[in-house]
Amino acid sequence: MGARSKDELDRILQNVLIFARQYSAESPLRASSALEEALTNAIHSTKCVDPTARLSLDDLYLGELLKLVDSIFVNVENSALLRSKLNLFIFNLAFYNYSIRSFIAIDVGMCNSAFLCLKLSVQEELGPQNLIDILRLLQVLTYEKRLPLGTWTNDCITFLLNEICKPEEPEWMSNCCAILCNLVSRSKTVCTRIKKSGLFKQFQKQMLELLAHDSRTSR
């Protein structure tokens, strides 16, 4: 039963690969609906640990799929719906499969793509849930210990500090704090960047208030 389930998931993901190839090669308007439908099926099929955790990069199609998904993910001309589906699909894979998470965070460098998607979400005012979904992906990817920090990192730190220091706490505060903690644990440079920020004192104050709040900490 388990083997058949894994085989079925392989077929579903190979179907995503077929439509992703078409989307990249043809007019996006013609191919987007088919890719979105394939992604909807893939999101549903990967939202649990089994069989997602048993996917293997030894299956050559998977590496090609992940790289192709990243190249589509960074295309600013994509619709918000397609970006959202790509984000949810990638999150499921990264959350339930360690080897895939490591591959897309380190080898593919998908944090850059995810942060670009985050900026587009803010610019297009796509709403809190879309923003939270993207932050959840960044939270999972930045947890990777060997994560390479790139040009996206400084902008990401600035965004996180601005969100954390808002007068009214946003719904995605916990995600922002988690991502920042992940980045700090990866590099001393991140700590230096935070300390040099004009928001550092406000950030310190906010963190102390959060830690002191009775409803957030155990006594």
Automatic annotation (TrEMBL):
Protein's recorded name: CIP2A N-terminal domain-containing protein
Residue ranges of domain CIP2A N-terminal in the record: 132-217
Pfam family, any one: CIP2A_N
